[in-house]
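User: My instructor asked us to take a sequence, write out its structure as C-alpha cells, and then describe one feature of it. I'm not sure where to start. Here is the sequence I was given:
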Amino acid sequence: MRKELLVDAAPPETRVALLEDGRVVEVLHERRGRQGLVGNVYLGRVHRVLPGMQAAFVSIGLDRDAFLYVEDAARRGEEFDFGEDEGGAEEAASGGSEPPRIDDLVREGQEIVVQVTKDPFGGKGPRVTTAVSLPGRTLVYLPGVREFGVSRRVADETERERLRRILEGFDEAGGFIARTAALGKTAEELAPDRAYLTDLAARIVRRRESSAPPALLHRELDLALRSARDVASDDCEAIRVDDAATHARLKEFLDAVAPALSGRLELWKGEAPLFDALGVEAEIENALKSRVSLPSGASIVIHQTEALVAIDVNTGRFVGQKGLEETVFATNLEAAPEVARQIRLRDLGGLIVVDFIDMEDPEHRQRLVEAFGTELARDRSRTRMLPISEFGLIEITRQRSRGNLERTLTRPCPVCTGSGRVKTDMTAALALRRSLRRPPNLYSPGETVRVRVPPGLAELLAEDSALLADVEEALSVRVELQVDEAAAPGTYEIRRG
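Assistant: Let's start with the prediction itself. The C-alpha cells for your sequence are:
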C-alpha cells in the first residue's frame, strides 16, 4: 500500500492528510488559538469530588474544569503523584478486592498532576488521567509505573516477545510501550527515543516543583510535528509540505527522530495548492455530506446523533444480475471498505452502528464480517467490533479523543436548530394561520397586519389565497405579505401596524 502524508500549513490553520493508494483516509485540523489539549500535562487542583458519579472535577486553568473518572485516577506513578494523600491512594488502589472509590483517591483542594486524554466536547470540559504517558516516535514512556507493553499492531508473537525483553532490560523507574515504529529496532536504535522521553519526564518534574496550580507543565507537539511522529509510518513514501518554515521544522525534527523519513520530505512547489492538486479539498467537502455514492450505484448514509453514529447501506440503483442474495452480498462487500474509510476520514467516535443490508446466507455474513474487520484494522484509533446481528447490524466502538471533522468544520444550523430539516411551506402557512388567530392577539377592525415571509411561503400563500382569506374575514383585518429573500425557509414574522 502506497502511503503519503500531506501538510498544508497556510496560517492561521494547519491541515494534515494521510493518503493510502491515492485516497484520503485521514484529515486532521489545528487552528491558531484552538489547538487541541490531548497530551498536555497540567498541575491541577481538585475542585470538587462527586462520590455519586465516582469522578472529580479538577481545575487546570481552563474555562471549564477537567473531568477525572475513578478508573483514570486509580493508577498513578510515584514520580508523578504530587498529591498530599500520604499514601492513602496507593493503599486504596491496591488493597482488598473492592474497587477503589474516587473519594479514597483524591480530595478537594489536593494538588495533582494530570494529562488530557479527551478534548472538551459538547459543553463538557476535557477528560484527564493521572496515568501520564509520554509518546515518542518508537516508544511511549510511563513515568513511575513499571509496566511494559507492545503495540497491538505488532502481530508477530516472536517480535512482540523480543521487544518486550528489550523494554524489560531498561533500568528507568518507569515503564515503556513499544510503538509500531519500533518493529525490527534494536535496543541501540531505541536508545535516542528512550533518552529523550526520560529527559522530558525529568523536565516535567522540575517544572512541577517550581509551579503552583493551575499550571501547564508540558504542551504536546503541534499538529505538523505530531503527525510526523505518529502518522508517518516507516513505509510512508513521501511527506509533502507546502510551507518553507514548516518544512524546515519538520526536517530538523525528522533528522533527530526518523532519519529514514527525512529523505522523503518534500517542499511542494506545484502551481495549484497542495490539497487541491491531490484531491483532498474535494474529499473534505464530500465528507461533510451525509450521503456517499458507490461506483455501482449503491450508497452509504451517515448520520451523527448525541448517542451514536448510524451508518446505513442502500442498494440504490444497483440491481445486480444473479439474484437478490448475491446483489445484497455484492453491495455489502463494496460498501465495507468505504464505510471503514469514512469512519477514519470523518474521525467518527463512540458507538457506531452500521446497518448492512440483511443477508440470509451465514457464509455471506461471515465473509462480510471478516472483510470489514480487515478494513477496520488499518485504523490507528482503537476499535472494537461485535459480530453481525440477526438484523444485519454491526456495532463498533471507536476511541474518540479529539473533535471529529464535522464538529471541527461545521456548526449547528441556526434555521433547523441542528435537526438538519426545516418546516415545509404548507406547515409554516398553517402555523401562521394559528398564530394570527391565537389569543391574546386582539386586532382592531380594519387593521393591517404585516407578515414577513420567505419567497417560498409567499408563493404558496399567493397561489392558495383561501389559506388567509377566512382569517382576514374572521378578524376583520388585512394581512399584507412582505417577502424577505433573507428569511429562513419555513419561518415567518408577524408585525403589527
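For the description part of your assignment, you could build on this observation: The CA atoms of residues 451 and 494 lie 4 Å apart. Try explaining in your own words what that tells you about the chain.
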